[in-house]
Amino acid sequence: MTPRRFRHPRLAGDAGQAFPIYITAVAGLLFLALALFAVGQAGATRNGGQTAADAAALGAAEDFRAQLRKGLLDAITDEQTWEDLLAGRGFHPLRDPCDQAQWFAGENDADVTDGGCVPGYLPVSFTVTVKTRKAVGKSVIPGTETKHATARAKAVVEPRCTYEAPAPLPDPTGDGKGDDGKGDDDKDNGGEGDGGDGKDEGGKDEKPVIDLVCEGKDITIDPEHLDLFPDAKDLFSVHLAD
């Protein structure tokens, strides 16, 4: 006679009660995974927005720097203007550097917000706020499908160089008036001395050289050889600021 097998009724009941717990646990883990995925989507969108803001701010600052170099070239004989421009004072760019901010933001799939490009001074800076063109997207968290990221960045233009004003000419007469550029025999030739009229032998106006100290290095700019004029990046640094 074959022995009969008995199943303990308590074991069968435990298995039936545990099944709903397993389902609940799996559903909870799935929801958690989807929530973490949504957080990752939001983080990626935010990082993309920050990249766009950084690029936009740097683009505006670099455009201003390039125009500032042109301003220094135009003021090559104006010592006071050079000193001001190197310190970031008194320069008005011909084109708006914020236009470059929008271009760089667009290249990174974002747009500069209204009033989102603000210049600052001493030192010159550009603070740019952008909004991403793409939303976070659909997720288990309500509202993310229409949620865009905004980000802000500030770029600063700082001089690398300081202007060294030329030393005053010695006063040969000792009367405190200095050398006025006239010779000793002005009276004999009708007031036109040969001691120096600001022109060379060819009749051209002499332009004084400009001495700069750029991060501890002496640089002399000769107005007669502007092909050796320093690049904008050698005169000014551009960097992000907090």
Note down, in words, how this protein is organized:
With 242 residues, this protein is an alpha+beta fold. 37% of the residues lie in helices and 21% in strands. The strands form two sheets. It has a four-stranded antiparallel sheet with strand order 1-2-3-7. A three-stranded antiparallel sheet has the order 4-5-6, with helices on one face. Helix 1 packs antiparallel against helix 3. The longest helix is centred in the N-terminal third of the chain and has 66 residues, at 9-74. The chain starts with 8 loop residues before the first helix and ends with a strand.
Largest sheet geometry? 4 strands, antiparallel
Determine the N-to-C terminus distance. Answer: 89 Å
The overall average pLDDT, rounded, is 75
Q: What general outline do the C-alpha atoms trace?
A: elongated
Low-confidence parts, pLDDT < 50 over ≥5 residues? 180-196
The value of Rg in angstroms is 36 Å
Strand content: 15-25%
Helix content: 25-40%
Strand order of the largest sheet: 1-2-3-7
- Supply the number of helical segments: 4
From the helix content, strand content and strand pairing, which structural class follows? alpha+beta
The ordered H/E elements are HHHEEEEEEHE
Give a short overview.
The protein is built from 4 helices and 7 strands.
